[in-house]
Design a protein that fits this description.
With 418 residues, the protein is an alpha+beta fold. Helices cover 34% and strands 23% of the residues. Strand 14 and strand 15 form a beta hairpin.
Length: 418
């Protein structure tokens, strides 16, 4: 297939998906191509997510115990305004929708980070991936996952409603930045999967009555706020443009006072912090009895050495990556060589206010894929979802060594057994 024919087919395919952002920031995002995997890869990917999820959830219980001081949270880079919020336990699962980012090294998944609180890549893997599989005549490894996503969301809402002790149905609001097509359409997709009455309200149309309630544009009290794409670390910086009141902090206070319930729950923000990986790795290195012998084996298999200082890497002359504890899409990431010299960095610097973690560098494997401009070669990263603790849909992002918001979505299909 030549480039013009490929472009024609791609445009026709994605024209049938008006709610999908096949192009982002003026460039191609959704590829008209597919990466094939076998049953063994599918099994190993979900085993990785299951075991990594177990380790994170167990660590969340430790961090939310009474033995952990406020100073510990501050040393890990959590904003002081969020500490009371972090201690809230309002859900049977620490996160409803989370996503692991991993890379294959010597045949095994190695965890790069866990977006436990506000992952995107949802509509792509739970909906669009299946349509691409049909287009290319392949089985969809994520075939059953949209229904599981529906179940996870409704189970979380049901649990939230039960805990509210309300006689009538609560006012459930889904929200996002209205001008971000990816965020808005992701949230609208999730809203369509819910069985309860709800409404979509852009973030800038929400209003807080300090210490009392969060209101929608109809002046109705919001009981449950689903903010899938709006990070807590951004929320706490929100100020009213007129009064300059810290409305983000006021919203968290409503949560702390049980006057508002938000999803993902507070514990998802706890796990969003990349310093959690340094906690897990530190406990592993000291052979802590907190983890069983089997769990230590999982950490050895799936985790990369991660620290709050680069000293060990510099001492051992090991290449490493510097990442902000809160950050997304490769923003603010820097790569250092064996001598501690910076050799690569992302041009965006949105998260310099947060302390960094230092993680052992691993080369992302490469693959070829078809684009509007012909065949390219790029680095490949795997995103795997965790729904209420259970492994779910997965797929690929391809692009530069630092996976950023200009990387492509590469769908995944299942090879037929030979």
């Amino acid at each position: 297939m030549n480039v013009l024919e490929h472009l024609k087919k791609r445009n026709y395919f994605y024209s049938k998906l008006p709610d999908f952002w096949a192009n982002l920031y003026g460039t191609e995002y959704g590829l008209y191509d597919i990466q094939t995997v076998n049953d063994e890869f599918v099994f190993e990917t979900r085993e990785f997510a299951k075991k990594a999820g177990h380790l994170f959830f167990k660590t969340a219980q430790l961090l939310q115990s009474n033995t952990i001081t406020d100073d510990t949270f501050l040393q890990m880079g959590y904003p002081k305004e969020t500490i009371s919020f972090l201690r809230q336990r309002k859900s049977p699962f620490p996160t409803i929708i989370g996503r692991f980012d991993s890379v294959i090294v010597d045949g095994k998944h190695k965890l790069l980070e866990f977006n436990a609180d506000t992952p995107t890549f949802i509509y792509e893997l739970f909906k669009v991936n299946g349509l691409l599989c049909q287009e290319f005549g392949l089985n969809n490894p994520n075939e059953l996952e949209e229904e599981r996503l529906r179940t996870a969301i409704n189970r979380a809402l049901s649990s939230a409603i039960d805990n509210m002790e309300k006689d009538s149905l609560p006012n459930i609001v889904f929200t996002s930045h209205e001008d971000n097509i990816e965020d808005k359409n992701t949230v609208l997709y999730l809203q369509k999967l819910t069985q309860y009455p709800s409404k979509y309200v852009p973030l800038d149309q929400l209003r807080i009555v300090k210490g009392e309630a969060l209101l929608d544009p109809d002046n109705q009290v919001i009981n449950i706020l689903y903010r899938q794409t709006f990070p807590i670390e951004s929320l706490i910086k929100d100020q009213d443009p007129t009064t300059h009141e810290k409305v983000g902090e006021q919203l968290l206070e409503l949560v702390n006072q049980n006057k508002l319930l938000i999803l993902n729950p507070p514990s998802a923000f706890l796990l969003q912090n990349k310093a959690i990986m340094s906690v897990i790795w530190g406990l592993h290195e000291e052979a802590s009895p907190f983890f069983s012998e089997e769990e230590h084996k999982w950490i050895e298999d799936y985790f990369l050495p991660t620290y709050l200082e680069p000293d060990q890497f510099i001492k051992d002359k090991v290449k490493y990556v510097k990442k902000p504890v809160f950050g997304r899409e490769g923003d603010t990431i820097e790569i250092f060589d064996e001598s501690g010299e910076k050799v690569e960095e992302d041009k965006n610097k949105s998260y310099t206010d947060y302390i960094p973690v230092y993680q052992k560098f691993v080369e992302l494997p490469t693959t070829t894929y078809k684009t509007e401009n012909g065949v390219k070669e790029g680095h490949m990263m795997i995103g795997t979802f965790l729904l209420n603790g259970a492994p779910s849909a997965f797929g690929f992002r391809v692009g530069d060594q630092i996976t950023n918001n200009l990387s492509y979505f590469l769908p995944v299909g299942l090879k037929e057994k030979q």
